[in-house]
Amino acid sequence: MTVDVPSALEKLAVRLGGGGAVLASAERLSGGASMETWAFALVSPAGREDLILRRRSAPFDPENARSISLATEAALIRATGERGAPVPAVRHICEAADGLGEAYVMGRVEGETLGRKIVSDPRFDAVREGLARRCGEVLAQIHATPPPPGLALKTVDGVGELDRYEEVYRAVGAGRPILELAFQYLRRHIPNPVEPVLLHGDFRNGNLMFDPQTGLVAVLDWELSHIGDPAEDMGWICTNSWRFGRPDRPVGGFGEYADLLAGYAAAGGRPVELSRVRFWQMLGSLRWGVMCLTMYMSWANGTERSVERPMIGRRVSETEADLVILLEQGL
To answer: Less CB within 10 Å around the terminal CB: N or C of the chain?
Structure first.
């Protein structure tokens, strides 16, 4: 069903701002096949309020989806915010009467999310040195957050992730020696289990918002949140694909392992061994390589016609180069 989002936002403005509130502006920012993001503003007797609408525009199957529901997203943002994590303020979780489908509204935060600018723009020179430590502190806050009762969150571990992505890889039918070797190596080096915690699930440069004066101001895109090993979040931000041309800075292209781990410990996180982080970092490169490979194959076999698929698919070679280096270095 097609939804007239601006018209629905006009009605929502009154609900959020009270009598006399009007919709001042509404603009769609981005969106894929199933998710949309809108920036809008309402003006009421109390003043102007700049907001973000996040809505799902396609049916959601919680049993088979990797992502979580938007109501669960909003609940996790609120819960981690109460623990001190920098997140947008959730303003409203939409109901059927709002006419927007599955959606929620949050406050708009100003900052930069483009990873390449974070690692290279001179505007961030003054704060860049402290970003890795700050990321460690924020991860400790997220991981210390008890998930609100009643949320449907999957639990993930290293064995399960290797099984999942190897199944996808085998189904594609492409023989890639480096990927084969990485699967074998990681299976021989699976870390011992630890107490699982709440994970962001996609904590990386590109999903974090930074300000040139104050540093990290918001953690965004919670749709892959789940329960698991705290080192998984750390390894993902260290994966070379998210360093944006700065392979010399393992944490997001802007910092060092030691600073990430020190910030995590200083904020109360349980000690995490670097070898554990590097396991998840290697698994991150392998996982992204398999994802790139499937995107290319979907184009090659005619399932997808978008030019974006083969363009991303070419990046499997980048992940193979990353894996060769990691395999040579060891954990």
So the answer is: N
The encoded tokens of residue 144 equal: 């210390």
pLDDT value, residue 19: 86
Q: What angle do CA 328, 129, 218 make, to 5 degrees?
A: 100
- pTM score of the predicted model: 0.94
DSSP letter for each residue of 123-190: GGHHHHTTHHHHHHHHHHHHHTPPPPTT----B--HHHHHHHHHHHHHHHT---HHHHHHHHHHHHTP
CATH of the domain at 300: 3.90.1200.10
Residues 181 and 89 grouped into a single domain: no
CATH number of the domain that residue 69 is part of: 3.30.200.20
- Domain, as residue range, for 153: 115-329
SS3 state of residue 280 = helix
CA dihedral 127, 133, 134, 136 (to 10 degrees): 160
Q: Residue 299: what pLDDT?
A: 75
Count the domains in the chain.
2
Tokens of 290: 């398999």
Calculate helix-pair angle for 274-300, 230-238, nearest 10 degrees: 60
The CA distance from 273 to 293, in Å, is 31
Buried b (16+ CB within 10 A) or exposed e, 139-166: bbbbbbbebeeebebeebbbeebbeebb
Which tens digit of pLDDT belongs to each residue from 180-231?
999 999 999 999 999 999 999 999 999 999 999 999 999 999 999 999 999 9
At 318, list the tokens: 């980048």
In this structure, what are the phi and psi dihedrals at residue 16, rounded to the nearest 5 degrees? -80, -40
Q: Of 84, 107, 130, which residue sits at a domain end? A: 107
Give me 184's structure tokens: 């074998």
Distance CA(301)–CA(64), nearest Å, equals 24
Distance CA 209, CA 176 (A): 35
Is residue 47 domain-shared with residue 122, that is, in the same domain?
no
User: Helix or strand or coil: residue 49?
Assistant: strand
